[in-house]
């Protein structure tokens, strides 16, 4: 009897042990599946491009009808500030007077503007200047400085333009860099085209 009871007890313990092992395996497998799911979801989400990521390479349409004469509007394109300035006739008349003071007055560095902006005003329409507002020296952002300013960094005969306070580079009202300044080239003119008199598309210039 004692032997039978011992055997029965061992068998019962074995069954309980097996059952416990099965429960542990189920729990472990379930926990593993949950953990795998928790890891997989963020990875899948990370492969889905965000709207901002898509916009970084997309053309940007902008309303320029509200830009006052002499004013500048900033539009973001590919994470960069693009300036659209509506120039006055006086501003345009001042451009050729500065040629001797500029590094590249004829915009001969091809990489800095499309062919259609390689002209005296560096734009499609003389009235509007369209340029990336990033200094070509170290990537700082210049500020607009009007004519008649008392800023000693731009000189007494300053006719208006842009000044980079980081290292002192100056650019005229067409984004052309002055001589003896850290910036090596003119400001970049991005590809662009007009959809109408008051609508500008930045980042694309192909005719449909």
Distance between the termini: 98 Å
> Rough shape?
globular
Strand content: 15-25%
Q: What is the number of helices? A: 3
Instruction: List SSEs in N-to-C order.
Output: HHEEEHEEEEEE
Q: Would you tell me the overall average pLDDT?
A: 81
Class from helix and strand fractions: alpha+beta
Plain-language structure description:
With 208 residues, the protein is of the alpha+beta class. 28% of the residues lie in helices and 19% in strands. The chain is built from three helices and nine strands. It has helices at 2-47, 51-56, 89-94, and strands at residues 60-63, 72-77, 80-86, 128-132, 143-145, 161-163, 170-171, 192-196, 199-202. The chain has a three-stranded antiparallel beta sheet, with no helix packed on it. The longest helix has 46 residues, at 2-47. The protein is globular, with a radius of gyration of 33 Å.
What is the strand and helix layout of this fold?
Layout: H1 2-47, H2 51-56, E1 60-63, E2 72-77, E3 80-86, H3 89-94, E4 128-132, E5 143-145, E6 161-163, E7 170-171, E8 192-196, E9 199-202
Antiparallel strand pairs: 1-9, 2-3, 3-4, 5-6, 6-7, 8-9
Task: Please supply descriptive tags for the structure shown above.
208 residues, alpha+beta, three-stranded antiparallel sheet, 9 strands, 19% strand, disordered N terminus
Report a brief summary of the structure:
The chain has 208 residues and is α+β, with helices and mostly antiparallel strands. 28% of the residues lie in helices and 19% in strands.
